[in-house]
Structure formats: C-alpha cells, structure tokens
Amino acid sequence: MSAINHFLISLTSYLDSQQIELVKRAYYYAETAHGEQRRTSGEPYITHPLAVAKILASMHMDHHSLAAAMLHDVIEDTGVGKAELEEQFGVTVAQLVDGVSKLTNIEFSSREEKQAHNFEKMAIAMSKDIRVIIVKLADRLHNMRTLGPLKSEKRRRIAKETLEIYARIAARLGMQRLHIEFEDRGFEALYPLRARRLKAAVSSVRSKQKELVEHIKESLDNQVQRWNINALIIGREKHLFSIYRKMELTGEKKKRFRDITDVFAFRVIAESIDDCYRVLGAVHSLYSPMPGRIKDYIAIPKINGYQSIHTVLNGPQNIPIEVQIRTKEMDEIANAGIAAHWLYKSDDDGSVSHSRARRWVKNLLELQQSAGDPLEFIEQVKNDFFSDEIYVFTPKGKIIELPRDATAVDFAYAVHTEIGNTCFACRINNRSASLNQTLENGQKVQIITAEDRRPQALWLSSVKTSKARIAIRHALKNYQQQDAIDLGRRMLNRTLAQIGVCVDENVAPDHLRSVFEELSYKNIDELLSAIGLGKQMSTTVAKLLVPERADEISTHVESPLTIDSTDGTMITLSRCCHPIPGDPILGVMSSDKGLAIHVDTCKNIADIRDNIEKVNHVNWSPNVQGEFPVDLIINVESDRSLFAKIASRITEMGANIEKIQYKEQDPNRNILRLTIAVRNRVHLADILRRIRGMRQVEKIGRDKN
Q: Which residues belong to any copy of the TGS domain (predicted)?
C-alpha cells in the first residue's frame, strides 16, 4: 500500500470522507506541482509535505490544516499562486498556505533582514488564523528531523533559528513535546560534540541511579494508595538541552552537572483536580516539602494554558525530588498545548489554551505594529521568548503575566498603553513604591496616573517587556515631535513680535501655505518642527511671512525665551555646567536636538557665544519648578564619619544626593564630589551655608565647567 493511501486510511479515525477527499486532492495537486523536485537527501520532494501532514494528523488537526500542509511549499517553490489555490481548495486553505510561505519576490540586504520580514509576515497571518503557526511548527519539526544531508553551516543556521524562535513559540503555545524535540535536535545540530558528551554522561548517571529511582517511585506509589487515591506515577527525565542550559548559566544560577542530575523528577497523573490536591498532601506527609518551592499552576494557569502543581521534596539522604501533579487532560494540554483544542475536537474558542494563545498572538501583533521595522520586531520577540514569567495582580484581582525582573512600568503598559504613558507613581501590596521597583510573584500592583504626565526616557533602561519598551519609544518620538512644534512656534512668534505679528493670528492661511511649500515642507507643523529642531532659522521664515517689513526684522532678538519647564524633549539642561534656576543662562540651538540650556559662563560655548544664529537669549520663568542637578566639590579633613553627617544635612535641607565620588588627597585631607538635586540657586545657597558651617569642611563650592 502506498504511503498516501496508508495515511488517508489513518485519518478515518477522526475525519469524515468529504474532509479526507480534500486532503487527498491537496496531496496529488502538490505532487504534480512539485514534479521532479527532490530534497537534498535525494528523496522526492512530496515526501516532505506528506511528513508534515502526518505530524499534524498526530495532533488531530483539522482537514484544512492537513491540506495546507500538503500544499505549504507550492507558492514558494512552484509557479502556483494564491489565487489558483483559492479556486481549487477554498479561501481558508489558500490563506493558511500563504501565511506559511516565505517572501520570494523581494531582494533583501541580508539573511537577517529576510528572516525578520518572513517572521513578520507569518505573525500577521497568525493573527488571522492561529493554525498558520501550527502548520509552520510541523514543517520546521520535519526539517529538524532531516537535517543530516545538509551542509554544516546550513544545519547550524537552521538549528540556531529553531532554538531562538520556533522552540520558544512552541513553549509559549504550550506544545511541550514539540518544544523539547526542537531544543534537543537544535542542540545536537548546533553543538554536536557537546551534545554527544553530555548524552553519554547523562546515560551513565541514570544507569547508576536506576535502583534509587525505583525505590522513590515505589514509596510514592504506596503512599498514594494508602490515601486511597487512584493515580499514575511516572519517572520524569530532564531533556538534554535543559541540562546544558542550566550548566551554561552565569553567577549564582549556574549549576554543576552533578547538582542537576542529582535531582529526581516524577509526574503524578490524578483523576480529578480534587485528587491533585489530595496527592499534594500525601507526598508532603511522606517527604517534607522545601520552603518556597510549591507552585500552584492549577489555581493560576500559565499564559499558555499549562496547569499543574509543582512541589520539591526532601527525599532520602536529602535528595531533592521534584513532583508535578496534574489531571490526564492537563497532561495532554501540557504536551499538545494549543493543538489540544483540536485533539479534543473542541468547538469552544473560549478554551483556556486557545484563548490564551489568541491573547499572545494579539500581543505579538501589537508589537509588530509599534516596532520601527521587522528587524526590531524580531529582536523584541526573541527577548520576550527568553524570559521566565511572574504573575501579579491588579487591584480588581486580574492576573497579569510579566517576565521575571519586570517593573511597575512594565505592569502599567501590560494593563494598557495609555496607563503606561500617564503613570507617575504606584502602590505595591498597598504600600507606596518606586515605578522602577522589580515586581515579585503574587504582588498586588496599583498604578497612579495623571493626564499631564508622560513617559521618561530613563524607563528604557529598566523595563523588561518589549511592549513597554516600544510604547515608550513611540510616545517619546511623538512627544519630541510635538515639543519641536511648540518650541518652533515660540521662537517664530518671538521673532515676529519685533513687528507686532503673531503667526497664528496675523498671517493669511494661503500665504502661510505658500511659504512652507516654498521651503519644501508639507505643512505648517513640519515647518515649525524644523525651527524647533534648529534646522530652519526663525528670522528667515519671519521675513518670508511678512516680506514687506523684512527690513524691520533683526536676527538678534532682544526679548528672551522663557524657560518654564525642562520636562519636554526639546529643551534640555546641559550636563557640562548643570544650570539651575537663578543662574544667568543662554540657549544654544543644535540641529535635531533642540535648545540646550547652558550657564552663560560655560566654557563649552565660549567659541559660539557671539553666534546670533545659534545662541538665544533665555530667562528662567519665575514659576519654574522641579529638581535640578548641580555638582559640588568639598575639601574636608579625613574623617570616616563625616560623609554621613554631610549627607544628613543635605537631606534635612530637602535635597537628594544623586552621585558620590570620594578621593583621598593626602593622609589628612579628602575631596568629595557630589551631585545633588536642588530647586534653585537660593536652595543651593542655603545648603552650602549649612555644610560650610561644619568644622571639618575646609572649602565647598559648585564644580563648574
């Protein structure tokens, strides 16, 4: 009997005759389309699509998915187009095939760019039909099983991509069997020598441990029976790549081979959720549990639908015993993940694994839409895949999944982008906390927002989720654009004020349009932004707007620009001289960066101080508020307790210490350099006076550039 006929007969266990006929037609259509094409191994190409369909059939995937598996390389490798497939097999099959197909008609500058664009295309297709990724995973699995005939470089490239992307997607979708096979096959292809040595070492250790494993299993079996619980206990072995990864970790998390293989693992399959908790009590009464090592994923399932109780016991001779407790259905979902939706022939799109998978794909699409380009998108996705999860709660009890070491800012963006963009404080377990504080499992987080708040660039260094990172960058870019427009408008109106004109009130719209078009701008906002960014002189624009009075407009504007805030992106305080309210200041225009504020005596602007095109007269607003960094240099007598006394006086005066440097000048004298945050010059003078009064302080002053 031919391979296809044998396969079609096997489908009768769960598909009807009409559905099987569609799969059969797809096979023969693909066989004709691929013609004489062969795989690198020399086998007819059609053996690959058939093998992919068999993998999907083992998951009981529907007839559309099986037909798409048969046809999945037709668009990419033959002259057949999507429209022709749609005509022959319907819209659903054609869309699945197109979603899996790579982009072939576009030239890319690098292999990485091609990979990124193909992944982006697949992600968009996944958002419309989750089966796209399941077909793709089956395709990749068969390719991994048949890497042998390929050249070494290509094997390594495919293995690396599989470990970085497809193994992680399988894990995210709860498809544990695929996840483990991807990792082990990827490891063997990428590091063949390491894999062989580790495999031999593991085999040797397990043969020595066999008797002890059997003894522990028998003890667990007897204990469960004593509690009158029907359950199946299975010895569970860690797969090769997970052992290798734990050995490769750095710092305190790095483990020796012996530490990993000395841990014994078992899985208990119970008949009901109630029995799962009874099993937990039974094993805890046999061996004492390790504190803090119990995780209840039945009460709080993972994002991919995984449910199980995990506990670690102190076994004989203090050997750690890892136990997973779950029902049979939970075990199937843990292994099949999203595919269990079809395995159980569920028509319920609200099933746990399916709804969570759709939520993940929705988040993936949001990342794609907000990322700058496909390369950024795929890098952010890779980062998200590699993170362990924690689970925290909203004040209303909703569970939010985040990567380990995520902050309250990550939480805010996970709830809603607008909450992230307007947050300024938080409460963790009903206590005030910093937005940058790292969250822990089980915490309740409340975010406090205000309409006038905006994201801070400093958040980018602490957030862990791609969603937060991309949203912050996107918001900052938008704010920068608006800030540039606002600054440009202020500068243009300040120039026009010489002749009593305002761009928003005294210039006719048609004339305004002719001016920005003459200067090659699309609209007035683009022109104002160019002024704010220092790309366009406000005097040039002003003379074009009012040409009849151009002679009255001077390049040197006497009226100063008022600095009332530094929260925006286009007005910044220069780090070289740290100006604070009360200091005489100048504003220096820098292309693409806006207006930088310097102390008027700053050495860095000495050469351009008289350049009227770059230097603007600016003044502090009487109402300016905020905290402003200032550098201090203090010469003190050598005294170990002195710094604590100085820090105490600074804090008492309502200032914060941001940075400290300590240098020994000689055995009797030291130099302290501090950066503190003050409100203005008066506040600074009060602090200097307070510290100068200390006996051990010989000299104190600002460390100016």
A: 388-449
